[in-house]
Write a structure and sequence with these properties.
binds 2-acetamido-2-deoxy-beta-D-glucopyranose, five-stranded mixed beta sheet, about 425 residues, Immunoglobulin-like, mainly beta
Length: about 425
């Protein structure tokens, strides 16, 4: 078949050169080079010619990866597969266009058209073919993906030589977020992190590769957790755990101990077991910065000081009890020995002071009883013995309703009034 085709070609060429009729057999590829975005659909436009009066019986499209004369063919009008991505949109007259849906990278290469007529010699393959190139939409990332920084994502369709006139749409995590060739991400925060793609507005199937934007930042929320608690008994261990959010993760941990004005680095792991109590903090860093935790104050309750304190407390209570008892007993003895009470005048030590109401209605006054009480109080002169003992009792009986009071010295064992 190949040889026969060859012979025919030579014959036709000679006919052409000799000025005879040029071959009526021809396949015309209207575009020799075709660029398609992956995921989009593309048409390979094509026309074909053959001697009049012949009838086209079958049309076929081949790909350079197979034998273009014998197949297999990617399209064969004798075996139509409607689910195929390769569909013939031409006819059996002169239009031999082929449409490829959902273009894949593997679809690249040369496509050739072949047709067969009812004539015994009527077989023709247009060898020149159309060459298909398959590209992705490219995304150019400029700027640093760091918190507070700006990043521009530019979508380019390399099929049109990076021409920005194509209508692009941007998707973030699969959701439409913007339109236009450039996506501006300014003053970025972690909320800008995500998977971005750009597409052709007209062919949403044509999609760029996924661009993962991962906004980086220095340490945040640096804190120290203390296990089991900030105050433990001597003998049990305290564990300090430093945690922080950072992107990239924390690279360096430093534990500091603060002793008055002295700051010492005491550890370099995220977990630290301090040997003694005091004030600690952790400092973390990655390539974007550093942050300190707040200070934690640890108390290790020592056994001896606690014990001593308790002993002192118990001793004090005991001493107070003894003193009180002694005083009480002494007083009781004084009472017993001094009875019967000596003459009142002679023993000022056991004097009682009593507020005695004066039942003199003439002196009664209106107004604030307290005020009047102060004003109307009659004081008797009481000579305090400078050597008086503390057990001398003073009793102030206040009758608020009374108009006046008289302080008088009375004898304890004498009836009042
Ligand atoms: C071939 O047919 C297709 C589909 O009908 C049409 O879009 C295209 O313009 C035709 N090509 C020619 C060269 O007539
Ligand atoms: C950037 O964003 C932060 C909050 O995310 C805001 O506090 C700050 O003012 C913004 N800066 C500018 C220049 O817009
Ligand atoms: C982004 O893509 C990566 C890799 O496919 C995936 O692991 C991640 O979960 C995606 N992130 C989001 C926010 O969808
Ligand atoms: C982290 O720190 C920021 C302030 O820097 C605060 O607004 C936020 O609530 C903190 N997050 C947590 C989980 O503590
Ligand atoms: C963290 O604390 C250390 C020790 O006190 C100090 O030298 C350092 O400057 C602090 N860093 C920050 C970011 O505050």
């Amino acid at each position: 078949m190949y040889v026969e085709h060859r012979t025919l070609t030579w014959t036709l060429m000679l006919l052409c050169l000799s000025g005879a009729l040029c071959s009526p057999w021809k396949v015309e590829y209207l575009q020799q080079h075709i660029c398609a975005l992956k995921g989009s659909s593309v048409v390979i436009p094509c026309s074909f010619y053959y001697p009049d009066k012949q009838i086209v019986q079958s049309v076929l499209w081949g790909h350079e990866r197979y034998n273009i004369y014998v197949g297999p063919f990617i399209f064969d009008s004798k075996a139509i597969d409607n689910s195929s991505r390769f569909q013939y949109i031409g006819n059996k007259v002169h239009n031999c266009s082929l449409k490829i849906y959902q273009v894949e990278h593997d679809d690249r290469g040369k496509y050739t058209f072949r047709f067969i007529t009812n004539s015994p010699e009527g077989k023709w393959t247009g060898r020149a073919g159309s060459i298909l190139k398959v590209v992705d939409l490219d995304v150019l990332v400029s700027g640093t993906t760091k918190e507070g920084a700006n990043v521009n994502l530019t979508c380019t369709n390399s099929c049109d030589g990076g021409n920005l006139s194509s209508a692009f749409t941007w998707f973030k995590n699969g959701e439409l977020t913007n339109e236009g060739p450039v996506l501006y991400l300014s003053n970025m925060s972690t909320t800008n992190s995500g998977n971005y793609t750009c597409s052709l507005k007209t062919h949403s199937g044509a999609t760029s590769a996924v661009i993962n934007v991962d906004v980086e930042y220095g340490p945040k929320n640096t804190s120290v957790s203390v296990r089991p608690s900030m105050e433990v008994d001597a003998g049990s261990n305290i564990t300090l755990i430093c945690s922080s959010r950072a992107n990239p993760p924390v690279e360096n941990y430093t534990w500091f101990k603060i002793d008055n004005d002295d700051i010492m680095a005491v550890g370099r792991q995220p977990v630290f077991i301090p040997g003694d109590d005091g004030q600690y903090l952790c400092s973390v860093s990655n390539k974007h910065g550093s942050q300190n935790s707040s200070i934690v104050t640890l108390k290790i309750k020592e056994f001896w000081p606690t014990f001593t304190r308790d002993v002192i407390l118990i001793a004090t209570v005991a001493v107070l009890l003894i003193v009180t008892t002694v005083i009480a007993v002494t007083r009781l003895n004084i009472k017993r020995t001094s009875a019967p009470e000596p003459d009142c005048d002679e023993d000022i030590q056991n004097a009682n002071y009593v507020n005695l109401p004066v039942f003199d209605n003439n002196q009664s006054q209106e107004g604030n009883p307290y005020e009047e009480t102060t004003a109307e109080v009659i004081y008797t002169t009481v000579d305090f013995d400078t050597k008086r003992k503390p057990n001398m009792e003073q009793q102030m009986v206040s009758h608020t309703g009374d108009d006046s009071v008289i302080y008088s010295t009375v004898c304890r064992n004498q009836p009042i009034i």
